[in-house]
Design goal:
Layout: E1 12-18, E2 27-33, H1 51-64, E3 66-72, H2 74-80, H3 82-95, E4 103-107, E5 119-122, H4 130-153, H5 159-162, H6 168-177, H7 192-195
Parallel strand pairs: 1-4, 4-5
Antiparallel strand pairs: 1-2, 2-3
Length: 199
């Protein structure tokens, strides 16, 4: 059973990212404030939910909550590294929020201060707090949509199925077709002895 809040009587914004471990595509992050009195049944870590349930919950979250989604490109990820890109994308989502919040709840154990607003990192927060779970659902579904659209231009990489993650089929496609501008060049796309031939 997920908790409604960490600190009672505080407006909390939950944050999570999606796509951190991918070989291709942006990293996405979401920020969500669940208004007082709003109940959304079935919230959980997005990875624990079926695609159908995620889409249903996304619709409800977007209708009932305050939210924003942001992304950083593969080029930005390569420039500042994936941890910094994940945090920066959360900052972008938080910065786009029109609703005032008093505390930030972040999935995981790493974050950087967003102005003077206090924050708390929560390991496996998407399994513990509803606002983080909601953020995880938005980040994942928005990113999945992005990768499915990108797959129409690059069908050989099967991004509609693997969403850019390092599956065997994705790596085989990299071997056969090389890389695109959507691949993260600082990641281990192939074993070192093979990767050298990609660039």
């Amino acid at each position: 059973m997920l908790s409604n809040y960490l600190y009672k009587n505080t407006i909390e914004a939950g944050c999570d990212e999606a796509g951190r471990g991918c070989l291709a595509g942006p990293v996405f992050a979401a920020a969500v404030i669940i208004p007082k009195g709003i109940r959304i049944k079935g919230l959980n870590d997005s990875k624990q939910l079926s695609e159908k349930v995620r889409k249903e919950l996304r619709k409800e979250i977007e209708e009932k909550c305050h939210w924003q989604v942001a992304q950083l490109t593969p080029q930005e990820i390569d420039r500042i590294n994936i941890l910094n890109a994940s945090i920066q994308s959360m900052h972008l989502a938080l910065g786009a929020m029109s609703e005032t919040f008093e505390h930030i709840l972040v999935d995981g154990n790493r974050f950087k201060a967003f102005g003077t607003i206090p924050y708390t990192t929560v390991v496996k927060g998407d399994e513990k707090l509803k606002c983080i779970a909601a953020a995880s659902i938005l980040a994942k579904t928005h990113r999945d949509d992005y990768m499915e659209n990108l797959a129409l231009q690059f069908p050989q990489y099967l991004w509609h199925q693997n969403k850019g993650y390092p599956t065997l089929a994705h790596r085989d496609a990299i071997r056969e077709h090389g890389i695109t501008e959507h691949h993260r060049r600082t990641f281990t796309l192939l074993p070192d002895y093979e990767q050298m031939s990609l660039f």
